[in-house]
Amino acid sequence: MVKPQKDVFWKALVFTAIVFLxxxxxxxxxxxxxxxxxxxxxxxxxIDWDDAESLSSxxxxxxxxxxxxxxxxxxxFGDKIYERxxxxxxxxxxxxxxxxxxxxxKKYNLLKTKFFINSKIIKEKCNADYDFIFYFYLxxxxxxxxxxxxxxxxxxxxxxxxxxxxxILMPFVADMDISVVDVLLEKYGVExxxxxxxxxxxxxxxxxTVEEVLEFF
Length: 217
Prior knowledge:
Order of helices and strands: HHHEHEHEEH
Shape: globular
Oligomer: single chain
Distance between the termini: 83 Å
């Protein structure tokens, strides 16, 4: 009577192990599919950026009469970057297995620095009337800072909604070893997070309300 019970036990154990391994394999394949889609989206964004950068270079050789078109195209590209960022966040929320997502996040943040540089050139050349809001945050923060960043991110999105094209909101990850971001951190003396720099000369550390931020505009 003992042997049949052992057979049942081992069969159950093997079945459970097979189900577990299949579950892990399915999860890994699903995550690999997500990363593949992220890479595809990034490649599309690179094409968009090459197009926008070419237009910007061309506009700089023309008279200022073409500035309105340059500004419009650049802001349109900024909207594309924002949409890609939201998509990346959705993938990040469900990420479990692959570290490759961090590489894609760094690519995305490098792309944002390109957009910033392009926006600054157009602003100076065309005397564009938009202002910058830099938002510096950590990719891997402590729990308390993480919660503060979530709050401040929502605040800044509400500010952007209120001001529209009058501002360009530039969220930058501070701990990804990106040279342009490191220069900005040093320039504005950012040492704690979250941190916001308004109009390139007003730094706000910690939490602020929508109303408090809007007072600077």
